[in-house]
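S2.1 Query sequence (SDR family oxidoreductase)
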Amino acid sequence: MPRDIAGLSVVITGASSGIGRAAALAFARRGARVALAARRTELIEEVAGECRDLGAKAIAVTTDVTDAGAVAALAHAAEHAFGGIDVWINNAGTGVVGPYQDADIALHRRTIEVNLMGTMHGAYAVLPIFLDQGHGILINNISMGGWAPNPFAAAYTASKFGLRGFTASLRQELGDHSDIHVCGVFPAIIDTPGLDHGANVSGKRINPGPLIYAPEDVAETFVALVRSPRDEVAVGWPARAAQIAYSLAPGPTEHLIGTFTRRALKRASPAPRTQGALLEPVATGRGVSGGWRDRKGLPFSARQTSRVVGIAALAGLALLLGTRAAARTRG
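Output structure tokens follow.
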């Protein structure tokens, strides 16, 4: 039976902005108790205040997910405040855009530490609690980059491929525990401040394109998973299309994505190179939205057009695979 959200205790990392902030508010509106974690103390205190205004109990715990001790302290604080932890959402994430060799190796290392090791630290801290109490839901926010490789984001792709494997391995390990669930979420491109918080060494302005989804779409997916857990869930048809395409035709998919991305970067306007918020927190990017949809002046949302465009994309994929199969037959 679907679970009721009210009264559940939920830990969310990366809760100061973007998807994490949207998730905090989504769970608070439904009566959950939330423990919010991020590096920006003042900002997570602000988000916690918004959750309390909605009638929820909320605590803010300053946490750098790359620090295993800090994540363990987060778990202890949430367990002490709420008497247990029902849901743990590993949401913190970052990345580096640009040619791999043009970024300092410290930025690539930090990407792996946040995305992969940060999630591993979270699982390491909460799984003993889940096992002791006999229930719990672990949600790892992965990315469609965990299904298909992203050029000019090599460290990000490495972390997300690893994160999908890590999530699947934990799910297998916990197969005998029927009320402990491990869920992977694979969003398409999301309109969050994270697009500005990441490092950009390409010298080009990032353009996420028109098919960009709202952070609330991912937050509502988290809520749906708590009510009815599933192993893997895509958010947005581009994520599902990437999974299908790379599973069935990895070579052509890599070629198409690579060609498209290289051309897009060549045509992009110049932009300063930046380390973003990888090594140190930044003051900018405090809200749920990154403002990309407003900047682009889109008269529609990706979610509203996803059915029509998704059908067209899948039809194109079918044509690609058919052409590939025909070429093999002729060969």
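The first strand starts at residue 9 and ends at 13. The chain has one domain: 9-330.
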